Amino acid sequence: MGYVHDTHMQQYIPPTAFSFVTGTWTHAAGNVAHTIVMQKAAGAETATVTIPLLVPGNSVDLKGSKINSVEIDYEILTAAATSITATVWKIARGADDAVAVATQVTATQDLTAATTAADVDQHNLLVTITTPEYIDDDDHWFVELACICAGTTVLEFLGAQVNYTFKA
To answer: Is the entire prediction scored with pTM above 0.85?
Structure first.
């Protein structure tokens, strides 16, 4: 094989790989034919959506995947949310008899949490890592969304795409 350094890699993450906490969530047919979504029923609550960033890591420094950004596709139906806020986390796996350690990764989101990210519409939320780094074989990363919903807000998550550099 030869040397690979591709700065334009993407990995689709289906909504069925997400984790959903708080609220009533169901698999549903999407508004577009042949698509699926995870839908949160209307309810005044703060729902947490966790999206694993499923890219290859490597035990060798400066090899594997370097996450640059994540795009999250979702819809808000019936009523605006109060806010949708993204946080990126890196989890360092614990050795035997040690706990894992969570570290927040500095990132920005392109849609304003309490306005454009929360209005009734289709959304593509871009979360950009401020200082991308290669994923170590002992780390895993995820995006956590805090979705503060009004009583009649319905959310639908269609999937996500992690954009990364791959080097091998």
So the answer is: yes
